[in-house]
Amino acid sequence: MRIWALSDLHLSLDGDKPMDVFGDHWQNHHQQMAEAWDKVVADDDIVLTPGDFSWAKNTAHAVADFAWLAERPGSKILVKGNHDYWWPKTKTKLHEVLPEKTYALKKNACIVNGVGFFGARGGDFAPLTRYGDKRSQEDIDKALEKEQRELELSLNDLKQHEQNQATTLRICLFHYPPIPAGRKQSRFSSIIEESGAKFCIYGHLHGSESQAARIEAVINNVDYRCTSCDLLGFEPSLIFDTES
Ligand SMILES: [Fe+2]
Ligand SMILES: [Fe+2]
User: Fold this and answer.
1) Domain boundaries of the chain, sorted by first residue
2) 2-241 CATH, one of 3.60.21.10, 1.25.40.10, 1.10.540.10, 3.40.220.10
3) H or E stretch at 238
4) Each residue of 45-75: pLDDT tens digit?
5) Residues with Cβ–ion distance below 5 A, ligand 1
């Protein structure tokens, strides 16, 4: 069984949000991703897609994007990104929209094929003043505190699941980079390290501008990898193979 990652799919199959405004390489990106995904991912594999799944403004408009996901092989695991406005408020509505073998994590966790998954959305560590961000550092810290609580709730939920079902590996999913640029730790990294997670898979960053914020490193035994689809050439990246 293999675990792959491809994040920030930014699908808009029921809308008119062309992604090629961000560069020609985004042209028909859903087709590029479908071809690459179908070629390498087997039915019993798992694909992690931590956030910014769809541009849909509400759940009804995300149906076509979920139909696209349902056609792809493997189990899929999502966390909520900052653009996932389609994400419904109740778990019942969330389960109605999710295709088979698809798990969406928010304050909860799941175990698939003996692997435990937990995570959170995360957030910016400082206001993005150069983009006109008007939030104060206090606003930011309050939002990060909420995300930290959600990460803890998710990990606690995983521990609950593990009382009935053993895991051989834990993987953390994050949407935002979990550590600020130029640093080696954050309020999130200590929780991730203590959990014993082998990987922390995140997305959110796009294009060459984002490179300064990217962490691709093993820090205190956690392997951090940014998996936004454009940074991976729209092909799933292999994270772990249980056979090897
Ligand atoms: Fe994104
Ligand atoms: Fe994002």
Assistant:
1) 2-241
2) 3.60.21.10
3) strand 237-241
4) 999 999 999 999 999 999 999 999 999 999 9
5) 8, 52
